[in-house]
Design goal:
This protein has one domain: Vaccinia Virus protein VP39 (Rossmann fold, 3-Layer(aba) Sandwich). It is built from 8 helices and 8 strands. The longest helix is centred in the N-terminal third of the chain and has 18 residues. It is globular. The structure holds S-adenosylmethionine (SAM). The site of S-adenosylmethionine (SAM) has 21 residues, from helix 2.
Amino acid sequence: MQLENALDRIHNLDCVKGMRSLPESSIDLVITDPPFAIDFKPKRGNYNRTPGRVLDGYTEISVANYRAFTLQWMGGAHRLLKDSGALFVFSGWNNLKDLLLAADELGFLTVNHLIWKYQFGVVCKRRFVTSHYHCLYLCKDDRKRKFFNNARYGPEAKTDTGRSKRYRDLEDVWDIPREYWHGDIKTPTKLPAELIRKILAYTSEPGDIVLDPFAGSGQVLVVSRELQRRYIGYEIVPEYHAFAQKRLEENQYRIPDASG
Ligand SMILES: C[S@@+](CC[C@H](N)C(=O)[O-])C[C@H]1O[C@@H](n2cnc3c(N)ncnc32)[C@H](O)[C@@H]1O
């Protein structure tokens, strides 16, 4: 597919297949949150959500196939990224090793290993509560990658306690709350818009092309558009694809559940 035809759309396709059809070195930034391979059950009661409003169809990958699957999609991302490009990939700790090994094998360089601290961990009886995700910030060429140090705060900006806001914002542990969409339709997992805004602000510019191979609710695409970036998304589950497409086409951030 010609790049121009693929742009500013979410495609109901397996991302590995979709990415193959795009030209090499055409993408500025990949932000993505692949399936976890943890036998994730999105409608489990302890996720504190109304199961009826969570769309069906979540597609998991088996642990045994995770390494091969990761190499496939990450290899596709490596081929598509420009030398100045970067990949942000989210992961729980369970299968992080597969992402780290694949990144090395494919020739990505690690810029940062970010931690997203969240507040929706599932309470456990016999171990500590997991309340973070990993986010690997990877690039192809460390000298060419983009980074806009003053994108959100200048050197003069101070917190209430007199500390540098820019320093705080640039720390590699990000404490960002989950968005609760009470009463609205949702997919089982979605990244908070603030997380995506932050990545986009520091590492891309208006007009850049952002790719999310595992688009889910379309959050990366919706926020990319909000910040005047171009975007391409893939989502394999028809219900999620339709939901994300509706959000994009109707320019609606949240979609109320009409059934009440
Ligand atoms: C963790 S979710 C992504 C959530 C997304 N970041 C958001 O904020 O809504 C992973 C998504 O990848 C989709 N998926 C799984 N395998 C895929 C494939 N081969 N190609 C495209 N999408 C796939 C799943 O259906 C799921 O919606």
